[in-house]
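Sample intake sheet
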Amino acid sequence: MTFQVEFEVHQHTFAFACTQSWSPIFLPGAEIRKLYQFKIFRSRYIQMSVAIQKQFYGTNSPWELSIGHYRAVRHGQLIYVSGSTAADPDSSPNAPGVLFPGDARKQALYTFGKIIDAIKALGGRGAESIVRTRMFVRRQEDCSPVSEAFRDILGRDNGSGIGTAATMVIVAGFCDPNMLVEIECDAVADAE
């Protein structure tokens, strides 16, 4: 069963076709004011605002849906990736779940994978496009496993072009007590 949904947010009308599971589907040639939506695959999509030349990347994660933000935004060559966690993509926005409870390293590795996917979707190369990383951990004992995951994915450049500035901060907590790490990244895409 497929049906069209339209809604208005901040004077922009959004429209897309949905299946029963509310996954966006590409509408060929659909122009809704200044916003276009392109299907990449089932649960991920890119939107482009013509007026201000920004591209938006969303994954339909439960947190993106409940809060109403995008996973990443590209403006010019700059790509900004929102705070990302190991949220269970199959969980409901009303009751978001977390993957790998109790394992900060696995949560960080999964999260870096989501971030790299977002960067690639918006025209970046991947890990080598990242220039700054901010890691927020819930407990002191999470610093070491998250640092290991960081080194595995983004550690100092050994000739591969990968290397990034980084900050790690211990915070009081997250939206879900099973979240042990949240990561933000900034990246630079190659000039087109």
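Comment: Residues 1-42 have pLDDT under 50 and may be disordered. The chain is about 20% helix and 35% strand.
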